[in-house]
């Protein structure tokens, strides 16, 4: 399931955060984000997505919420 969708730099930070906590992730559209970043920005049509297993959803949402509060 997609847990995050947005800019490449944000997706990388979320990906690393989740990996550090033992959540297996997959990043979708990463190559497109490096080739044409204007297309994957918040208003773009192909955002970079962080994908996780459905059973990790609750833990991932809590980690992402804590991450955004700390920013």
Automatic annotation (TrEMBL):
<protein>
    <recommendedName>
        <fullName>DUF2007 domain-containing protein</fullName>
    </recommendedName>
</protein>
<feature type="domain" description="DUF2007">
    <location>
        <begin position="2"/>
        <end position="67"/>
    </location>
</feature>
<dbReference type="InterPro" id="IPR018551">
    <property type="entry name" value="DUF2007"/>
</dbReference>
<dbReference type="Pfam" id="PF09413">
    <property type="entry name" value="DUF2007"/>
</dbReference>
